[in-house]
Amino acid sequence: MTLRADTIHHGYADTTVLENVSLSVDPGEIVAIIGPSGVGKTTLLRLLALFDRPHEGVLEYDGIDVWATSQQERLALRRRIGMVFQDASLFDASVRRNAEYGLHVRRSWSDRLRREIADLVGLRNGTSDALEALDVVGLAEQLDRHASSLSGGEAQRVAFARALAYDPDVLLLDEPTSDLDPRNTAVIEDAVRAASLRGIGVAIATHDMNQARRVADRVAVLLGDGIIEVADTETIFEDPADPRTRKFIDGELIY
Ligand SMILES: Nc1ncnc2c1ncn2[C@@H]1O[C@H](COP(=O)(O)OP(=O)(O)OP(=O)(O)O)[C@@H](O)[C@H]1O
């Protein structure tokens, strides 16, 4: 599924956060959204995930203007998205129950909802399951551990597995490794790459430039109240068109 945001304007009360923001994520593509703290990365991901409606602009899932559809259709489209937040926020249950959560949701869908989703965006065969997803993040041997006993890094890996087990078309990751050590970060980054190889499109918000460089195919630089530049990763790091991108990468531009 292709996600496309077109000339989005959004903000809170009198504050404009995003102005004229356009961005797309193609199947199997990893797009990093980089920018300093408070610039609107979370706001943009929440809009892409349909948690909030943009004040202006169009959001398309596979060419469907999502905010022009019925609430039920929108719910169906929403279910094609997996999201992982900075804070893992697991349920008070075992690793296995946490990873299986999305599957329970999916099993609870009525035949009618299943048909609607299939008609709108197609339904994959659901090849992934919770165990496979936990294996991807190296936790398949820890099924019975309780979430409360996990380290922060392990918890975040379970949160990632939970999103993956849901068999999404697109993964939206909000600073998924900002609190993690290099080993846990590497596990998540490998899992992101594996997801993209399976055709899942990924948008990852990060203020870690090196992470963007390691995982992304394309990078969008969010500064001020908009995306100042979006280009393939090499161009952003080696030959950016906007001088502010160079300054931001070099750590000189702290917004
Ligand atoms: N619910 C809200 N109500 C009012 N203002 C908000 C709300 N959510 C975010 N903001 C403001 O919008 C701006 C963008 O916030 P956002 O969380 O999207 O930035 P960010 O780039 O994700 O930051 P960080 O990297 O620190 O997570 C900030 O100034 C923030 O204070």
TrEMBL record:
Q: Which InterPro entries match?
A: AAA+_ATPase, ABC_transporter-like_ATP-bd, ABC_transporter-like_CS, P-loop_NTPase, PstB-like
Q: Which Pfam families match?
A: ABC_tran
Q: Which GO terms describe its cellular component?
A: membrane
Q: Could you tell me one molecular function GO term of this UniProt entry?
A: ATP binding
Going by the entry's taxonomy, the superkingdom of the source organism is recorded as Archaea
**Signal sequence, renumbered to the chain:** none
Domain ABC transporter residue range list: 3-249
PANTHER family attached here? ABC TRANSPORTER I FAMILY MEMBER 17
Q: Which SMART domains match?
A: AAA
Q: Please, one GO biological process term?
A: phosphate ion transmembrane transport
The UniProt record lists the keyword Metal-binding: no
Native organism: Natrialba chahannaoensis JCM 10990
Looking at the keywords, is Cell membrane present?
Answer: yes
Q: What is this protein called?
A: Phosphate-transporting ATPase
Which Gene3D superfamilies did the record assign? P-loop containing nucleotide triphosphate hydrolases
What keywords is this UniProt entry annotated with? ATP-binding, Cell membrane, Membrane, Nucleotide-binding, Transport
